Each structure stands twice: as C-alpha cells, then as structure tokens.
Amino acid sequence: MNRFIYRSGNDNAGFTVIENIFINEYIPEAKGDYVKVYLFGLKNSQNPELEPLSTGELARILDLTESDILKAFDYWESKKLVRIEEQGPDTNIIFMNINSMMHYPAAVRKQEPVQKTSDPRFKQLVDTVQNMLGGEPLTFSFMSALKNWVEVYGFEPETVILLVEHSLTNMERSENSFNRGSRLKYMEKVAENWKKTGIRTYRQAEDEIQGHRARSKFVYEFLREMRISGEAADSDYEMIDSWRNELGFSDQMILEGARRAGKKTMPYVNAILHSWHNQGFSTPEDLSRDRKAVRKQEQPQTAEDMQREEAINEFEQTAIDWFYSDNDDDEN
Prior knowledge:
- By secondary structure, this protein is mainly alpha-helical.
- The chain has 2 domains: about 1-115, Winged helix-like DNA-binding domain superfamily/Winged helix DNA-binding domain (Arc Repressor Mutant, subunit A, Orthogonal Bundle); about 205-330, no CATH class.
- The chain has helices at about 20-25, 30-45, 55-60, 65-80, 100-105, 105-110, 120-130, 140-150, 155-175, 180-195, 200-225, 235-245, 250-260, 265-280, 285-290, 305-330; strands at about 80-85, 90-95.
- A two-stranded antiparallel sheet has the order 1-2.
- Helix 11 (about 200-225) packs parallel to helix 13 and helix 14 packs across helix 16.
- The longest helix is centred in the last third of the chain and has 29 residues, at about 305-330.
- The protein is elongated.
C-alpha cells in the first residue's frame, strides 16, 4: 500500500485551503475573533505534523481568553462548520468541507460518529446531562466544562449530575432569566464553590446542597424580618456567615438584631451585632438583663424613666455611629 504525504518542512512555508463560500457567506456575519479562531484551527487541521494544542495554549497564541476560544467553537459548531468528537481525554475538532455538506449531505452524515467519547462513564454523563437540558446538543463550551469538572476538579460523574440538577432547580426558582451562556456560567460558579470547599463525591455534594437549603431558608426569614423583598445577594450570605462564624451569634440573636434594625440596612444590623459582641452579649437573655442594650417596649411612666430611656438610646446610637466612623477610617 502506498501512502502519500506532503511535507512543507516549516509551518510558515505551508498553505491553507479556504473555501470561497466561507469568505463570501460566513465571514461577513461572524465576529472577528471567531474568524481568527476558525482560520487558525483550519490551518492546523490541514497540517497533521503539528502538535495538538490545549484550549489554554490556543488562547495564548491568539491573544484571547479561553472563554473566547470556547465561544468561537460553539459558534462554528452551531453553523455546522466544525464537529466536536470526544476521544477519551482528547477532543477532536473536525473542520467540515462546506461544499460537501451542501451538495453531498448523505455522505457527510455517514461519517458522523456513533458516540462522542470512548469513555463509557463520560458518555453516560454526557447523555444524562443532555437529557436534563431537554435533549438539546451540548455545546463545545459545555462539553469542555464537563471534562474540566471530572478531570481537573475531580468530581465523580454522579456529582456532576447532581450539580447540574441543583443548578437548574435554583435557576427555575430565580427571578432572573437564563440563556445557554448564562446557564453555563451559573453552573461553573457552583462548581468552583464546590471545588473550594473540597467537594468531590456525590455524598459530599448532597450534604452541601442540604446545608445550602437550610442557609437559604434562614436568609429568607432574616430578609423578611428586615422587610426586604427580592432575592438575597451573595454579600448577604457572606455577612450572615460572618456573624455566625466570627462573632459566634446564634440565628436567634441575628434575627433579634434584624428586629432592632427595623427597615434599616444590612450594615446597620452589622453595627448593632458588633456593638453587642463588644459588650459581651451572646444570648437574648443577656440583652434583657442589661437595660443599656435593649430599648423598652412600654412607654416610660415618669420623667425620670424618660430621661433614662433617652440616655440608653443615645448610648446605643453613639456606639453604632462609632462603629461606622471606625470602619470608614479603616477603608480610607
């Protein structure tokens, strides 16, 4: 058997075949970065002597971000100009002949792989996630994310499935709308948080979700006490966690701080709780025993009581004002 091989000797001395239909029909409507990624990939696809490149290496060569590279391949895959095949740990990016697709579609379909990956567990993961997303084909970005979560983050395939399920449930309950791109970004954020907390197994992920649900329920109760509508921000969770972990307050004390603050802001509650912490108050009983730390609910009956009430209120406000001014000095 004779095999014919062409060698240019140097990549710069070679040439790249570009169909005119690509120039005429596809370049005008595509972003410049997408065209740059396509042409570089097409050049490499026609020179098998070149070494494979990771997404990060390709991003550095083209002076783009990895996200830009993934979006570009997603775009060209949606146009059916490239086809993505998973071969175990590797990804094959196949550049399709445009004229063949137009004039000989049956022959092109015969060349399509029966499955996208040779790893049966990963193949099952892809199929499961694809069904969870309504059966729509997974983009190159999503496939890359799945591989990253399994191979780099060390998640079990079952952990990834739980991650997707948990994320989809939260997005359905959210007041925000999500498209393909923002949906994946949400999942990547969850995956990053799980990685930071050391989650790898299905059981660890399940425990994290249960803990998150409990936190969310309390944060909702806290915001309701504050008469704040809408979804909780990440900063709300972080501040409440700091009251628990750094100040050592129970949920009961945190809610008491919210009641004292009324319709004020989160920083106002923060000031109240820090004031209590500095005075050594850790339980509602501590507050009720010290008249300087709690406002009376009943109206004072005598002039002496009224003067004492005013002194208490002035002391509390002074402590809060001092806390704010001290924090402002630290920031400046």
